[in-house]
Model the fold of this input.
Amino acid sequence: MPNTPIKTLGVAALLCLSACTSGNRSEPAETGIDAIANAAPCARSTAPEAVGMPSEARIFGWIEYFASLGNRRTGTVGGAKAAAYMKCQFESLGLQDVHYETATAMKWEVTRSSLAVAGQAIDSFPIANTFVTRDKPSVFSTGPGGLNTEIVDIGLGTQPEIALKNVKGKIVLFDLKFLVPTLGLAPLIEFFWDPGLTILDPSSLTANPFQTSAASVLQGMVDAGAVGIVGVLADYFDSNKYYNERYHLDITIPGVWVSPKDGQRIRDLMKASATPTANLVMEGSYEPTIGRAVVGALPGKSPDTILVTSHHDAVWNGAVEDGSGAASVLAQAQYFASKPAESRQKTLLFATMDTHWAEYKVHQAFGKKYIIDKKTPYNIVGDVSIEHIGKQGIKDADGKLQIVNQPEYRGIFENLGPTLKLTMINGLIKHDLRRTALLDASPLCGTVGIPTDAFSCAAGIPTASLISGPNYLYDAADTLDKVDRDQLVPVAQFFAELIEAMDATPSALIGVPVPPLSAAASGLP
Done:
């Protein structure tokens, strides 16, 4: 599936094999962040609720805290607070070797943005990581009056349409398409627990916002000489607050998203003029900052290590993405920290990352240090990643977001051995993790990677990675009410049992042998 992000189709996995930096870097001179990051360690908690498998209320309380921080993007105060909170919780639960791993990333921020077509103001939202040059700091601006030029409609943005409309020097309107529905993953399904046969619902044919047409279309416009972009979120509910991931492109022109209804309004205004014009304003900055992973360990009898991961950053309140994932890592940390060290055959390493919206720079740094270069005492032999425990979102007949009180379709990408596959199948049934599929990651891990934060599968590490793709995931609508509270404890119990089974399995038998990505595929010289 070329030219699509697929959460950049495991871009974190692909890039963790490429050259990247990690470790000891000085903090940026950003007000408040230094003090937050360098806070004193937290004391070990003796509270009864900090022992054993945490309750639903405790797990949800962690999510509430993350959501209360609002924007948790890399380089923000909210992002620093999220990392510091994870670190404090690791310490209070009794994890050892608790510390940050850091890497330089780029912080993209817009301070002013607007769109008008034919003199009419249109509600819009900036397309993330546009108007920049890769890895080069900048302060960008369309000027006080913005761009004033002809706007042309290229529909789906195919190369023939771009050429036909001669977009050079013009602002370009196009329809963003979501590409892969739930059933698009059917060839990878090994087992699907769906006792209610909900897969027969038409929503299983609706594409999620992970994989889109943006990458190829945006680059095509830039290459053809367009000066601005207006993207219509054609498959979205009635919102323009879509904060996409970085597509590893050099989109050097400004762009904004508009809702489906405003897209139609723009087209109506364009039809009323022989040569329609638009005004596009964008001002902001693209500057280096520090990304952080938070790491803590529970030693076992062996340096062979099971890694438990998610990410703690978000662009909005991020309750589902990924307050639920970060809280799930804390649930595992609490459960296993309550057990005596001698009960573990292997070491457990817990980590949450940021830079999810900043080209996965921390993921890359962590992967290079811990897995590729093996510069730590931890010999990682398995990876468990947990993300997005949310309710299903659908678009109703009026184009509004409607939340259905059932889990969003979800998958566990995995390349574990047969006994651990059976453990997962039994666990899905035992804990009734309905609407959950086991997906064979073996053909992906050694080629394009998987669309999750489980970056280590590309390095040949056996992996089990839970993820779902509700349609509100990149939107301001990702608020606490979207978290599927009923699933928090069952998901935690499922993964605790899986980790225990991995711990008891000889390291060589944990996974299906998958060679790491080739140098050519990973971008290595």
